[in-house]
Amino acid sequence: MSSSDIFIGETIGTAVLILLGGGVCAAVTLKASKARAAGWLAIAFGWGFAVMTAVYISAPLSGAHLNPAVTLALAIKDGGWDNVPIYWAGQLLGAMIGATLVWVAYYGQFQAHLTDKDIVGDPAAKSVEAQEKGAGPVLGIFSTGPEIRNVVQNLATEIIGTVVLILAILTQGLNDKGNGLGVLGALITSFVVVAIGLSLGGPTGYAINPARDLGPRIVHSLLPLPNKGGSDWSYAWIPVVGPLIGGAIAAGLYNVAFA
Predict the structure, then answer these.
(1) Rounded to an integer, what distance in angstroms lies between the CA atom of residue 19 and that of residue 147?
(2) Closest CA to 91 of 214, 208, 188, 173
(3) Angle at 95 between CA 198 and CA 227, to 5 degrees
(4) Cα dihedral value 46, 49, 51, 57, nearest 10
(5) Which of 32, 127, 149, 251 has the smallest number of Cβ neighbours within 10 A?
């Protein structure tokens, strides 16, 4: 694969991933959405199908990593580091594009939601916890956040979820070239993502992907959304560092136990 194929494939694939994944979060969250309050089950399956769609679209070009933790794990597994920066750049750009497209698709719903006084409330009356988080009423559409803020637990949750994801990819999901997900692997991985969401997603929202969280969080901070609140940058390092640690651990476990 050429560098341009990798960059284009990862940009398009990650954009589709975030468009559909962030889209289901918007559908469940926003006022005047037909899917509002559909619940966690809808979100978990929405993200799973988002992974499947994005992988099938981008696999012919880039191998469909779509996740810096996957790229890191494959580099550790095979010792190939040359294209890592290209993968990561495409993934971050794609995540930002996808998050922007969610805003475009739900523009009217964002406006209605963020101008509803019953939803936004009086900023001066926010709880101490809400003030510490600095998060507005739509940040969860773009990025993840913990239900209980505990650095050790939050980091451990992201590491554990990512280890499960990466081990599933490495043991049963690679294509013949070993540089990404194969046809059957894409389907398997999509259901693994659903399983992680249902079983391990409750504490932190299961980023398990640094680009998936960081790119949309940057977009949230830049978009002209009324009453959007802060982007919770004090937490932002956890869904970046946690998945990268998890990816490295999974690759090490694979090399010791399966290679």
Answers:
(1) 24
(2) 214
(3) 85
(4) -130
(5) 127
